[in-house]
Amino acid sequence: MASPTDFYSCTLAALRRTFGYPAFRGHQADVIAHVAAGQSAFVLMPTGGGKSLCYQIPALVRDGLTVVISPLIALMQDQVATLQQRGVRAELLNSTLSARETARIEQDIRLGHVRLLYLSPERLLTAKMMALLTTVKLALFAIDEAHCIAEWGHDFRPHYRGLSVLPERFPTVPRLALTATADAETQADIIRRLGLTDARRFGASFDRPNIQCVVVQKHDAHTQLLRFIQHRHRGAVGVVYCQSRARVELTAAFLDAHGIPALPYHAGLSTRQREQNQQWFLTRPGVVMVATIAFGMGIDKPDVRFVAHLDVPVSIEGYYQEMGRAGRDGLPAEAWLTYDVHDATGLIRRIKQSDATAERQRVRLHKLDAILALCETAACRRATLLRYFDEHVAPCGACDTCRRPPRTMDGAPLLRQIVEAARRTPGTAHEVAAMLAERERVRQSWPRWRPVRSADGWRAVIRQCVAQGALGVDHRAGSHLVATVRTAAVLRGRQPLRLPASRPPRPPETSARRAPPRSAPDTASIRARLHCWREAPARARGVPDHVICHDAALDLIATKRPRSRFALRWIAGIGPRRAALYGTSILATLSATTAPE
Ligand code: ADP
Ligand code: ZN
Fold this sequence. Notes:
The termini are far apart. Helix content is 48%, strand content 13%. The protein is globular, with a radius of gyration of 27 Å. The protein binds adenosine-5'-diphosphate and zinc ion (ZN).
């Protein structure tokens, strides 16, 4: 039997001969030697770490067919074309091929002429493909973007779930799961579903020390972005991520009008236009790509100096993947994000109003909470980000919070209140926050009692506690908040828990500088409070928020500010029934907003 050294030298020869690289990077050598020896593995490697070689080289040195499963046709096409250019027999089977072409490839597979076969999970799971695979000698199953298998992953693809048949149907064929982005829960799920419990795990650090993180309060995102580029990255290549297509177009036009060569990229553009913009970005100097998250997968440009986010991403995994496109050459780069607490309220609302199942909604809210905690943290941003991936590092000294530490306060008394509330009535972070706020609201009727925190405020505190490990979330039990080892340590005074001293800063319309007089509170904050108000009755009745009252009606209330139940009746979308049911609490919410903080 060949020794590990033999495997190493033959894989190194393949690296040099076929790919023209002199040496392996990071964990590549270990992973490849392990897989080439016919063992299964789970590989966690940051974007750009060189995951594809981890299965491409074993495919070259092992006997039989390597099947690569990937969620994206475009990625597979790229890899297959590159491999073919390098003289490797790689094929992709998908529905765009003609019947003749498909038959030819299948015949070549049967004859053992194909080394690597790329498939979507859907294709793999067809009865025809399964039958074909049982007739040929298989070397390896490589499951790329393996996080897509996890329901609480940020990028769940239902068809990936079907891959759990691989260990059942092909128990002797080694499996290699690869991902750049998976929190602890997701990793556990991948391992369970792909039968990798006994497989070796290879994990590179998620740290990208050359990328400096900065989060700024959003007030005028476009101008802030322009200044950031002009002052820090003039003439540099960058990527700006926006949440919507319309915002992509506006932002690209804005930058262009101010002398920054910017191109839009989103799924609404024609394929030709997208390809052209991508080509320009890849080949011309100093182009800024303004894009939705549709852009980036498989883009391998080493000299991106900054990645900016104009909107809060929906998860840390997504954010990490996007910001990780900066500084692949190892030179200094910046990840810059503008954050506004109102965006967060909007995102939460969108999740709650989505068609997703209750469980899926809970997972998405949890993911969103984690990224909001990163935006609001008073601790080192790098350490907070890495902790999410279960890596514990000391403060970096380079991020914005390390360089200008925000004021903090002792979080233990708040943690105690949260733990007590969650013990009495177990629930998700959002439910416990609502409970705590409701308790304070009830106390509002007590003489001289001033409520300290709204549900939003409590949510912010809870997500900080979760981000710092002082509370946990149990996804197997309805995403309920649970105590952790650190909870006890903090409550017993053995470990400190520092939380940001102020509540998450408010947008500038309400800030001291531009604050309107008390008699005219800004519409946005009234609207935000009305949205919060709506959650309690919606939850009580177990219906979506909009059933209680439409957004449009809340907007009208926020602008018209009716003072009586009678006036409320005349707001479109309210009417006499809702006015009778909710009038008192709506008016109370309105007057609470106009009252001093
Ligand atoms: P990932 O899938 O982890 O994001 P890729 O497999 O696409 O990364 O590799 C990223 C880039 O690094 C590719 O251009 C690849 O050719 C290059 N690369 C991978 N391994 C090596 C190596 N050992 N030496 C030099 N370049 C490498
Ligand atoms: Zn730091």
